[in-house]
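The instructor's notes for this session suggest beginning with a concrete chain rather than abstract definitions. Hand out the sequence below and ask the class to guess, before any prediction is shown, which regions might be ordered.
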Amino acid sequence: MRIAEYKDYRRRLEALDPAELAEALVDLAETSSSALMVVKRLVSSPDDHINQFRENLAEVTEGAGRGRYGLSGEQILEILIRSLDLLEPGSMDPKIGLELTAAFFGTDGTAFESTNELDWEFESLYTFQACDVFISFALACDDKAFVLQLLEGLLSDDNYGVRSCLLKAAPSFLPEPELSTLMNR
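After discussion, reveal the predicted structure:
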């Protein structure tokens, strides 16, 4: 979809009756798991987002290994994209957000092993979107020692090269003492 089309659709949708939009979303959610995840996010509380996020990651890590009937790479990608949407830095405790984002990075092996056809999409999801979410939570977190500990754990197990974005961004969210500690290890 081109930008002009997007803007036109958005303008026209904003003019519709909210009940009509709600009906359309519910109808779409009945036929699309991705749309269902969006609807659940829209109607849920921040605490529900945390639970949904954890359930989604469990589905990805457990569902990918079910042999012939496991999740496809496309399904894993869609679940991960919608899961990252659940993490809103302004609406949850930064430490919880950091822990959840770290868990998200922990799915990189499952994602990359699921298919070879989506490597670019997975790489982009982790190195741009997930990294941005981590940075937002790290900036908001007052406990920089906690941020450093989590970051060190993530960087020590970067088998797919998608966590290096966090190291590159570390000067933006770690003060000098923690940054020096990170660089000296």
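Then share the key points. Residues 119-140 form the longest helix (22 residues). The chain has a mean pLDDT of 91.
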